[in-house]
Every structure is written in C-alpha cells, then in structure tokens.
Automatic annotation (TrEMBL):
Function comment: The RuvA-RuvB-RuvC complex processes Holliday junction (HJ) DNA during genetic recombination and DNA repair. Endonuclease that resolves HJ intermediates. Cleaves cruciform DNA by making single-stranded nicks across the HJ at symmetrical positions within the homologous arms, yielding a 5'-phosphate and a 3'-hydroxyl group; requires a central core of homology in the junction. The consensus cleavage sequence is 5'-(A/T)TT(C/G)-3'. Cleavage occurs on the 3'-side of the TT dinucleotide at the point of strand exchange.
InterPro entries, per the entry: RNaseH-like_sf, RNaseH_sf, X-over_junc_endoDNase_Mg_BS, X-over_junc_endoDNase_RuvC
Active-site residues, Swiss-Prot/TrEMBL: 7, 68, 141
One Pfam family, short name: RuvC
Species this chain originates from: Saccharopolyspora hordei
Entry similarity comment: Belongs to the RuvC family.
Protein name stated in the entry: Crossover junction endodeoxyribonuclease RuvC
GO cellular component: cytoplasm; Holliday junction resolvase complex
Length: 194
C-alpha cells in the first residue's frame, strides 16, 4: 500500500510518500515540503499548497492519505491555518476517491518511537532508522509527514481488524435481538390462545 503522509501547515506543509510491504516493512518513496510565503493572502497560500499536493498525488499515486489531526495549540491563528490546510488536503483526496485517515500527534509518536511524548528530534531519528535513510529528512515537517505515512501503514491493519470485529459483533447483536423478539411473539401468541 502506498500512503501519502501530510503534516499540514501554511508556511511549511510536510509531504511524505511511503510504500508498505509485508509485516512492518516500509520504504520511503519521496519526501518534501510545500512552502508558502507568510506575507501572501490566505486564499493564495491555500491554493499553492493545494497545487503542490495535487502534483504529488499525480506523481506518486497514493492509495490513501494520512493527515495529522489538528490539535489545540496556544496560537489560534496557527491552528486555523493548519485546520484549513487539512481540509484542503482531505477535499483533494476525496475528489480522487482516496480514503483519508487522521492521526493525532501522540498516535504518530507512539507508533514511531514507542512513546506518545517523543520530541521532534526523536521522531526524526526513528523515521531515519525505520526507513533506512542516508540522512535525516529536513525540516521536521518533512520527517513528520513520513512518520504519518509509516504510522498509518502500521496502524491500519489493526484498525481494519477492529472495524471488522465491531461490524461482526453488531450483526450478531442484531441476530440475537431478532431471535429474542421472535421468541417473545411466539410466547404472546401462545398466551393469547389460552
């Protein structure tokens, strides 16, 4: 499976493409950053990020897009820009029929380093090792995008199994309720005949 990881941001939007193989085997395909000048107007910046993400989708043909889930920060302006970029990327993926997965920063850190509290340097070091890269991806946004893709590849099989188990449990519950209702009707009919 090929995953496009996106670390959303207006000034620097990290992009990373990773292929997943058997088990936990992962291979880096591409990594980079879409940049926009802070002095530009918001619509222009969002358009520039969208153009770059579309270029990456055309070039690398991902099967799924993994985006970092926006979390509350002290700087509301930064959160808004990050959320807007996330929305643009999710829209681009949806228009292509690509599934979108959102992962929290702590999920990504835990998947990559074993600790949900790992710092950016630890994540970058682990991504470099996991993917067998000759040099650490820079800036941190690029490393984070690769981390998102790897996180999704490693978490998706378990999430799929959980979803299948939940669906099976719901079906069993529906069947059980239907049997109980049928038994209750039979009992009521028997009581009515007496």
């Amino acid at each position: 499976m090929r995953v496009l990881g996106v670390d959303p941001g207006l000034t620097r939007c990290g992009l990373g493409v990773v292929d997943g193989g058997r088990g936990r085997s992962v291979t880096a395909v591409a990594v980079g950053v879409a940049r926009t000048p802070p002095a530009d107007e918001l619509p222009s910046r969002l358009s520039a990020v969208a153009d770059e993400v579309e270029r990456w989708m055309d070039l690398h043909r991902p099967e799924v897009v993994a985006i970092e889930r926006v979390f509350s920060q002290h700087n509301v302006r930064t959160v808004m820009g990050t959320a807007q970029v996330s929305g643009v990327v999710a829209l681009l993926a949806a228009r292509r029929g690509l599934p979108v997965a959102f992962h929290t920063p702590s999920e990504v850190k835990a998947a990559i380093s074993g600790s949900g509290r790992a710092d950016k340097k630890q994540v970058t070091t682990m991504v470099t090792k996991i993917l067998g890269l000759a040099a650490a991806p820079k800036p941190a946004d690029a490393a984070d995008a690769l981390a998102l893709a790897v996180c999704h590849l490693w978490r998706a099989p378990m999430a799929n199994r959980l979803a299948q188990a939940e669906a099976r449990a719901a079906e069993l519950a529906r069947t059980h309720r239907a049997r109980l209702e049928a038994a209750a009707k039979t009992i009521r009919r028997g009581d009515a005949r007496r």
